[in-house]
Amino acid sequence: MIVTTDWLNEKKEQVVVFDCRFNLADLAEGAALYEHSHIPGAYYAHLDHHLSGEKGKGGGRHPLPDMNVFGAFMESCGVSDDTIVVAYDDGVSMFAGRLWWLLTYAGHKNVCIVDGGFSAWMKEGLPVTAERPERRTGQLTLHLQHSMIVTVDEVAAGNTLLMDSRAPERYLGETEPLDRVPGHIPGAINRFFAEAMENGRWKPASEQKKRFTGIQADEPVIVYCGSGVSATPNIIALKQAGYSNVKLYPGSYSDWSNDKSRPIETERRDIHDE
Question: Could you give the angle at the alpha carbon of 141 between the alpha carbons of 132 and 247, nearest 5°?
Answer without folding.
Answer: 95
